[in-house]
Protein 1
Amino acid sequence: MNTVNPYLPMEAEVVERIQETPTIVTLRLRLTCADARHRFYCAPGQFNMLYLHGVGEVPISIKSGPQHFLDQTLLLDHTIRAVGRVTRALVRLQPGDRLGVRGPYGRGWPLDKAHGKDVHIITGGLGCAPAVSVVHELMRQRSQYGHISVVQGVKHCDDLIWREQYEHWAKQPDTQVLLAADQPDARWRWHTGMVTGLLDQLTLAPHRSLAMLCGPEPMMRASAERLIELGLSPDNIWLSMERNMQCAVGHCGHCQFGADFVCKDGPVFNYPAVRELLGTRGF
Amino acid sequence: METPAFLPADRLQALLELLTDDGYRCVGPRIRDGAVLYQTLDDADQLPRGVQVQQSPGRYRLEQTDSPRRFAWANGPQALKPLTFAPHEELWVGELQADGSLIFHDAVRQAEPVAVIGVRACDLAALSLQEQHFLQAAPDPYFRERRRQLLLIAVHCTHPSDTCFCAHTGDGPEARTGFDLSLYETDTGYFVTAGSPAGERLLARLPLEPGDAGRFDTACDEVHAAAARQTRDLPTGNLQADLFARLDHPRWQEVAERCLSCGNCTQVCPTCFCHSEQEVPDISGTRSSHQRQWDSCFSPGHSYIHGITLRQDTASRYRQWLTHKFGSWHSQYGRSGCVGCGRCIAWCPVGIDPTEELHAICTEVKAT
């Protein structure tokens, strides 16, 4: 049948497996078909459906940014927490293993709206993964943006992944990195508590700032509301949502959040679009 | 409107034969398990004769009358939905090769041409909504193939049930669009109109007689009378705004105490599109079939996300179904997701009537 089938995966190979924490693994993937590699392009904040043979599919955000698509080697990084039936099996894959990939899907971060502005990236837990690609992109085009803050909170300090990356960003000009852990150990030198407790420390010029949020919903809601109290306009707050996604093209109906299909209308939303329903039980 | 030509009742078989000659499998209403179901039709005599349907909340019963009519029934549990959006189908197959590589095979198949006789206006409206859902941004090839091969012969409805409210939603009982051919039924035959080029070609080959204007007026009056007999309606005003302003209304809890969360309403609904995907590996582990089947927002798995079920109770599931069908559909597809077929009322095992729930939630004073 000579038609494009949005459901059909492409084959990919695991090139590298990085054990980030006991339950978090990054799989570095290479599409095996050269033609598929050439065609693939994604914006920061989009996601792929990863398929494990005989097990099933799950949506996983793409950690690689546009800088990875400039050469022909295209490697796709996906950071996965073993939490469900499919992800527990996915994190066991080893270099050389094959899997299916389809994507990219959804709307990513509003880089066009961030041009010339200060950008504050505020994440919690593994919410840092969909945001890393956007930080990489901001750094790659550093002169296009004003002040950059990267704020990440974790439950236990051992959950913090990519510590060296944060330390590297902290050394960049006009860049602020703030980290928080609810449960620190003796060596933790950053903030103890919730990520929202860090927001007052932001170098925040509300009139020229844009915030990008990703993490658990209560964390995003509390952060967005605090940013608004600090003077940021709700229109300048963007957040990345998650829901049950099975088709990724707006057909299967599971990811509906009010009138939005998170898979195609999101996962990145402008805060006013979701503000009312966010935190309403059952949506 | 010019008086359409007339097909005498005893020549209905000629229509079936023409369709069969053109390569169509004919599908039409037949009686099975005490209900009118769309099934393969080999002969016009297999159509019900004089069968009418009594429907009320939680109740569906056939009634045999002396009428010679074949289409004197209101809708059965099925709509056109299973013919385009299959209840269960394979999407693709993954094959593990000896060297560890994976090959994916598309399972989109050439659909067989199907001609449906006896389509209702409500179901045509529902099909149009499903087309919007499945064929817009990322066209679904499985749906598209089946839809492409479908020929639709509507019969304007003259016998709505007590549960019907298509006149209120504006979708019936007269079929105005979306059909290839339409029939106005009388005791002695059918006035035939075409709604598409394929319908025109078919009409030109039928053994028709000139239609009588007076008798055609009577046939049209019957359809209008069918609209006037309907009693159910939806609250007026902006249902989307009204529903989302009443997410804490006590009625959600009250209806949840009656609702079994069985999902029957969503399975008989001609516009519900939710489906789940699952993996069915063979015993050797080398071949795995990726399939989909109809799902329901009443199932616990519908709102599952990384270890959490967002809608754990029936109240939140019932609220999801109603706020979506009558509310957020407006934003998604420019109109309500309800075509007034009333199936969800008749096929609810405990007789919950969404029109009554909507009135209770949206018309009564907002709870404080």
Protein 2
Amino acid sequence: MWARIFALVIKEFLAILRDKASRMVLIGPPVIQLMVFGYAASFDLEHIPYAVLDQDGGAAARELVARFAGSPNFTEVARLTHQGQIAPLIDNREVLLVLRLDANFSRDLLATHAGNGPARVQVLIDGRNSNTASLALNDVTSILMRFNRDWAARHGQRGPPAELVVHAWFNPNLQSRWFIVPGIVALLTLVVTLLVTGLSVAREREMGTFDQLLVTPLRPHEILIGKAVPGFVIGLLEAGFIVLMAVLWFQVPFVGSPLALLLGLSLFLLAAIGIGLMISSLAVTQQQGLLGVFLFLVPAIILSGFATPIANMPEAVQALTYLNPMRYVLIIVRGVFLEGSTIRMLIPQYWPLALMALFSMGAATWLFRHRMG
Amino acid sequence: MSAKTELALVLAGVDKQFRQGKRSTQALTQLSVQVQRGRITGLMGPDGAGKTTLMRLAAALLHPDAGEVQVLGLDTRTQASLIQQQIGYMPQRFGLYEELSLRENLDLYADLQGLPDAERAARCAELLRLTALSPFAARRAGDLSGGMKQKLGLACTLLRAPTLLLLDEPTVGVDPISRRELWSIIQTLHGQGATVLVSTAYLDEAERCDDIILLDQGRCLAQQPPAAFTAPLAGHCWRVRHAGMHRRALQESLLTRPGVRDATLQAEGVRVLLAENPPQPAPDEDWQPQPPRFEDAFISLLSPPSTPGQPAPAMSTPSRDQRASDPVPRSSAVTVDGGMAPAPRAGSTQPPAATSSSEPVIEVQNLRRSFGSFEAVKDISFSVTRGEVFGLLGANGAGKTTTFRMLCGLLPASSGVLRVAGVDVRQATATARARIGYVAQKFALYGNLSTQQNLHFFASAYGLRGARRQARLAWAEQEFALTDYLGTNTGALPLGFKQRLALACALMHEPRILFLDEPTSGVDPLARRAFWRRINHLAESGVTIMVTTHFMDEAEYCDHLVLMSRGEVLAFGSPQAIRAQATTPDHPEPSMEDAFVQLIQTHESDSRQAA
Amino acid sequence: MNRQRLRGLIRKEFLQVLRDPSAIAIAFVLPVILLLLFGYGVSLDAREVPIAVVIDSPTPQTASFVAGLDYSPYFAPRYVATAAAASEALMAGQVSGILWLRGDFDRLLLTGRTAPIGVWLNAVDANHATLLRGYLEGVWQDWMLIQAETAGLALAMPVVAEPRIWFNPAVRSRDFLVPGLIAVIMTLIGALLTALVIAREWERGTMEALMASPVTMGEILLGKLIPYFLLGMGGLLLSVAMAVWLFQVPLVGSFWLLVLCSALFLLVALGMGLLISTLAKNQFVAGQVAIIVTFLPAFILSGFIFDIRSMPEAVQIITHLVAARFYVAILQTLFLAGNVWPLILTNAAALLLMMLIFLGITRAKSRKRLD
């Protein structure tokens, strides 16, 4: 039996790797996508383009405006002179926000000594991307807080009665890249695995070679193993490569146990391969196979917590994510990378993946023989 | 009318080369041929002779590398669209839209060919009548039988009554009845003044043409009327009978004699083509002169003359492409030939059925299979004994393929008993599969793996290991002369080699039963002869062969036949017995094809009446 | 261009679509399901985030601070006795953050010093953590204003920001995600509809029969483009209707401008599918290429979720290769901001250029020849 399976595995590898085009498909895009997405997929705002309409012009106003100019997070694009200039700038997305200090700004600010005020800075923000808007507003508030503290100290005012002292665990500088890049490990691994397995049975069916395989004494589970091993090996190699790149190139910390990651990725690969083969053997034609891959891939990624937190979803959709292998592997990968999770801590993530692998592989095996023209 | 416009198609000094990566193949070399208006011209030649390339050049779908192609006086390079408005071209795989109904396919091509709406109804009705497809106008094209599909493809190309009709192997994969119908349509068109260029692998169709172009390796060997091909062979053709000898044994014996260029089974005896006159009959042999046929001319022009003492055509009678590229000397092929089935030849003077045990290797009882409400196989029973060549014949859509797939374990039966090699296929499929070999109709090996990788894979898939594996691999390379192609991707192999490789893979584990699904469809006569000699040797060595075919002359090679029609077994017995069933006073000596056509037509009209 | 031939081809394509329901499924069922799943599922707005609250010694002061947390829609505070228990809950992922009011909170507050409020956030998801910090700062600021008024403490905030969030005052992330989703879904649909159709004609041998008829390559391509364009527009209108009525995204701009720009984008997506199909001539390769070049780039590089302005220069340049980028900008603007002509015209021009490039290459690569 092992000799037969070994031969199948060799055959599958050759079928995947002998063709130049399909070799390219497996190596080129993941590397390029890792590099591009690794940089692209980030929520961190750096150089927020903004404009200033300073209708006050006093020293305090100038000082406040200078604080924004001095911040690395902000890039001043324009200095405005009248109100009418604001709308076109924001509408055309030339600036993300406009700071408007009205003519009373200095007066109000000085009046705070007398317990009046406070002075107000209007922050007009493009809310088309509400996330960006919220983050930008956070940055504005931080600058204002620092300004307030300095102003209060300089003018002998009392500081704030209480103050938030925020500690960010696992990611002290709040870099979203640390969150996204480990996610890309899972994302690209899933895509590559589905590419290798998703159309493979449908193609053999269309070419007639699957019949030739079925008349040999090979049993369905042997065919399954033969088809699964190359996907597993290729997936694991690519995942390993991406993990290395994440650590060495993107400088994401890796604090957990490599063994826990290996176990998690292996279980995830098995589940993904099983699903790919299930889609593939369910499909009569390659077109159906392609449609099936998309129908699985797109929700699996969007509803995984890769970019948007699962906790933000409505209950019903959250329940659905329990069927998504990506959900578990993302927790595993991020846990191992950033939180230092151990195998023991990740058991609640391991067993659903193992269950999915078992079920999907079983279903695929059954479908090999029972799904016929 | 000038002499030039008398010609519908002119190829002058045409070269055509195909490049695929670093490999390039010369398809046509300095080819100059002409097709005259108002005639049916047949295009013949072995695989890889360049027939399809010529057709595509004439349809202005390819441009020649050198030389000129003129269609109806127009140059294909510059006036392609004018040409395509006047010709009808039916490619080898005519692409019908399977999801569309027959009528909708016709409508599409009527639109594409610019048939005015006013004429459409009348023209479609006429074509439907001509092709006898009217009752099926609403049926999905995908649900039509192979023969009907071909007729519909033909009708689609005929909508605007083309001046020149190009048909690329319209009769491949089509049963004899549909084949006759297609030809009667072609002849009707010819009667209406159409010019037809038709390529075909069926040599008996040559006799229906006015003119034949014989291509070989991209060159024209001859262009003349069929009679001119056969005339020189008058007196070279004989039918030999031997009272006490089985036909296949007699054929073997005749093939080894000097001067015998060809020997095929025909009716009760063996048809022989001699290099020279007169025959030298052995004792007990009865030699009757026969009129020469085109096939004889084809063999004598394309198969090299044999040297005395060597069988011709030998085991690995090369398809033409092999002779071009395969340096294996022919003598080695002979030793291989001997090595393959040394023992049985002594005993082969008797029918193999008698030498083997009478215990059935394949047993089919009350087998049924339905797809939804459609019953593809209705309660059939037959059995096959060891060492037999067993043929499964029938019209397109008779249920052959369904039966075949059930026997191989590829399709579960709805009900009935299925025993193959002593094992119930419905229970122990894997055990049964280890004892069978299967060659699919379509080339079905891994195209982007090399020949050697395919061989190794199938050796392992069948569980061969150690010394036996080495021995079988060596045997396959030797026996099928694959050594030169070991590193080649099988997708790029010449057709003849693909077929050999498929057979080698199926025989790797020395199966007790070999299943062949239309193994010779689209294969040229030379390769078919070689193929059948191989099959005969296998049968003599005790392998049971189960085969489906549309070539009725091949049915003669079978020991027993099952003739299926509409999911039922219509006739079962030896070829002689089946022919006898169709014998009538008008037809004292029907050929296998005559018998096939008559039995099926009678049955279908009976069942139609009953319904 | 011959009208009769084109009519025949279009009718054929429609019939094929009708008989093989998978194309209808792609055009109509897929957008509905995807939009439903994602419209409800994809949100960046945190609501009722579990947060552990540790209060060493409860006093009216701490109660007033915590009341702000209770009142906030963003938080679901859980009161924990000890800091150690809170930290355990954070490690186990039961809460997203810890807020710790120490025993000296009251004393420092009343003696006029600044009392520290300890906050620990699980920052694995940095974006989430940043947003949480913002929400907490909001709670804190409100508390101080109330303190200043009621307790008569001096106001310690000389300057406060007065945010005016244009186009999306409620800061609903769904309002920008749903229009973006339409772009991602249309990319998928456009490519899925056409990526295989030409390759399929080659594999089934129908292409050769078509080519030998008087039909021109332009007609064959148009015969593919028009039916799938109509199907795609149907799917698009469905998506827009769902966005407006189901997800209550306001459509501020002109509906017809939206249709026009969408038509342009659909042509780009279909053109890309046709190009893949034409170049591949083989369904397997066409399928693999379609998977790689459509979904992930449209998901990550279009600005649908990750703001293009936060990407490094080099990556920003690369995003110009992704048609969805221009369409997302148009959609977000038309839905939320209105007819901002300069922005819409530049992005539409980019789409037009891409369409011409894709269709032009497709046309140039499909010659009516077999070699």
